[in-house]
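Hi team,

Below is the intake form for NAD-dependent epimerase/dehydratase family protein from Ignisphaera aggregans. Please confirm the fields before the structure is written into the shared record.

FORM ID: S-0412
PROTEIN: NAD-dependent epimerase/dehydratase family protein
ORGANISM: Ignisphaera aggregans
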Amino acid sequence: MSLQHINRVIVTGGAGFIGSHIIDYLVRNRLAEEVIAIDNLSSGSIDNIAGHINKKYFTFVKADLKHPDEQWLYYFRNADIAIHMAANPEVRVSVTNPGIHFNENLVVTFNVLEACRRGRAKTLVFASSSTVYGDAKTIPTPENYQPLEPISIYGAAKLAAEYLCISYSKLYGIKCLIVRYANVIGPRSTHGVIVDFINKLRQNPKELEILGDGTQRKSYLHVYDAVDATLFLALKILPTAGVDYDVYNVGNEDWITVREIADIVVEEMGLSNIKYIFKPATPDGRGWLGDVKFMLLDISKLKSTGWKPSMNSYTAVRKTVRQLLKKET
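The structure came back. Fields below:
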């Protein structure tokens, strides 16, 4: 596919899971002259971007986006595109400490939007989430589903940030792409159900604690597909769409249960006769308060652009397990 070539791109959270894969993609496909990663390394790792350090095309800025300062604001001057991936991704933490998601997901997004406005950045890509839909009554859930009623502070912060993006687009002419991701998985991930299961089974290969009743069913997208879709939308579709902003679901067409994920992890680790211990946090079997039990995004709008995922949820889960176990690259 032919994508727009850009001069300067900023990736916030560039040392993190999805952000580092975006940088790899940009560099591998020679899509940008200058790539700037901004990260405070709270959850990201310099190891994720080690191959780019000291290269002419790459700049790493260690900075906390919760605190505006000229050190990182400088890089937004005349940026072609800012890809905003910096966030706290742990949905569960918002139950006990909601201030974390307010500050790290909403305040940070406001600061990035302000940096775009002051620096005259042309386009912003915002990493949103399927959690903005809450317990949707329509499944698969389309982008125009109403009402949007998130059931976690994480989802509420993402939704509030979406509205900030829309307002900045309308007021200041910043083109904005809002990407509502399903569960993104793959190498370099440091949290989520697959990482949790692998870690638990390494500690105790005889039993596995499963949060929830195991019937939770969700859509999973491999990070390779997530990045490919994001940059396809940002560098091919949005520039010619003739709109101030646009919203896309980015996910898969199928879904998989937590118990099925556990079975795949057990199989790939070469284990057997594992005792599953289910720990539902709610009467209807959710893993934690604020956990959306059933999630499947309608990706018809995304597919209408000509893009479709290369792996379904089952293949993505198995590939991720193998990659995290170092069986595959």
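SUMMARY LINE: The chain has two domains: 6-184+220-250, 187-218+254-294+311-324.

Thanks, M.
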